[in-house]
Amino acid sequence: MIQRLILRVKNSIWLTPSFYSLFSIVLAIGVTTIDTLYYYEIEKIFPHFLLTSVELAQTILGAIAGSLLTMTTITFSTIMVVLTTYSSQFSPRTLGNFITNQVTMRVLGVFMGGFVYSIFSLLFMKSTMDHPVISSGIGVIFALICLGFFAYFIHHVATSIQVTNLIDHLTKDVLMIVHSKLNFIERHNHITIEKNMPQIRENLLRKSDIHSKNYGYLQLLDLNELLRIAVEHDQMIVVNQNIGQFITERQSILTIYGQNGDATFDYQPFMTVGSDRTIMQDEDFALKKIVEITLRAISPAINDPNTAIDCIHHLGLALGEVSKLDGNYLIYKDEQNIVRVIVPQKPFEEILYSTFYQISHYSSEDISVILAILESLIMIAENSKNGIRKTVIEFSQYILEGVNEHQLKQLDQKKLQQNISKLKSLM
Fold first, then answer.
1. 87: which of 46, 76, 214, 235 is 20 to 30 A away, CA to CA?
2. Mean pLDDT of all residues in 155-184
3. Range 191-274: architecture per CATH
């Protein structure tokens, strides 16, 4: 339930601007109250340059409101330009990385908040006031803060559209997902990664299939709650679909094994199906974003092999960490060491293939990209255990099948053989 709430918060573009707007309304009410009831005290506390007459305050706040509305429009137009760049040059899947970025939403929120404060201050201000007010002084301070945020936003946009920064950010997303899973497994002795699926207990004779109420991508599973329910009802819950997989209403997501008839408990709140994939539990989708940038870079339309090489090196770094989660099933057990929840996951061999098979196909004639793939495989093998090294070396043969070595120049062949020899020496 908490993860579903976090997912909704991350995907809610309106949330941060709404919070700033609400805060600005409260601030306008508070400042107007001070101007109305405590104007004698504020003359002793606040500097005189912050105090203005009501007529001047209305003029200043009107100018600030118009200026901030213009800045908000410019900011929104800039966001649209950046989104077009992300979609055309990088990947449509990377749009969310900029849209839901906290800097972007915070800047919009500050501008909207400044506009809301100015408008509501004008609304609450009484023309019958015959004493100085601080509403305009606070508005000027708010405008200066907005100006600082605007300068920071320009810097943020300039760095965001640099492909190297985007690749680094996407790589950190993969590492964050993997490390959170590894840390969670290390903290809980009852969670293990295994190659073979445990047998269903003989006393669990009845089973029920749980289907999704709508089609889409399986985004989240609240595995802790599923474990708690399985223990309470003496059940074994088998998850039939991988996180990130596209499912329909006819496909079973969960199979419930129990002793007492059909499952009557509502399992729908513990699984989230949506129209888009997310990276909260899906490291494969985070890798897919880097792969798509790589494919765009090696396409004839863009022809930027150096960006592709940079992506492939980052993929090698990320896959080295993903290899630590190698296994077919994630097993949750109770305190009595009884298997309660079985979650399938992609073995590393399958993740390795899904990451590189398109890159290998479209870059078979570009020796620089092929060499970068081999360098990434070396990076993975150097930081992995023996079983993973064997998988990586076998996969390198698949990469080399698409390369026509007879068409390569002598130095290219020499460099290729050096990488192959280095990879094989790691066994």
1. 214
2. 87
3. Alpha-Beta Complex (3.90)
